[in-house]
Amino acid sequence: MRSLLGDCSGVLNLTSRLDFLPFSNGVHDDLDEQPRRTRYRELVGRGELPPGHATEDGVALHYVGTRLHDVLGVLPDRNAWFVEPDGAGHYREKVLPARYWIS
């Protein structure tokens, strides 16, 4: 899994983690002060990152093997997104609502 990570200064870096998953991952996808959301989608659209999942704060992805099994949230009304290239150098995305599991 290749992820787009940023430090406190806003510098974004690609990093390899969890190489047993064939997807990329964009984290903290909902933080407006960070350029992660836009940058992650640009990289997927251009094919510099493989298709993958972007997650908002408080969202976890549960995989069984290499299959996404569930999207869980510890905060209400959160989402993950499946992001893939559209074939024209851009991206398309599908919302994956997180199941709020804290009661």
Give a structural overview.
The protein is mainly beta. It has one helix spanning 36-45; strands at residues 2-6, 12-16, 24-26, 52-55, 59-64, 67-73, 79-85, 91-97, 99-100. The strands form 2 sheets. A 6-stranded mixed beta sheet has the order 2-1-3-4-7-8, covered by helices on one side. A 3-stranded mixed beta sheet has the order 5-6-9, with no helix packed on it. The longest helix is centred in the middle third of the chain and has 10 residues, at 36-45.
Spatial gap, N to C terminus: 31 Å
What portion of the residues fall into strands of 2 or more residues? Answer: 35-45%
Residue-averaged pLDDT: 85
Structural Rg: 13 Å
Unreliable stretches, pLDDT < 50, 5 or more residues?
5-11
Strand order of the largest sheet: 2-1-3-4-7-8
Number of strands: 9
Q: Structural class from helices and strands?
A: mainly beta
- Number of helical segments with 4 or more residues: 1
Q: Give the helices and strands as they follow along the chain.
A: EEEHEEEEEE
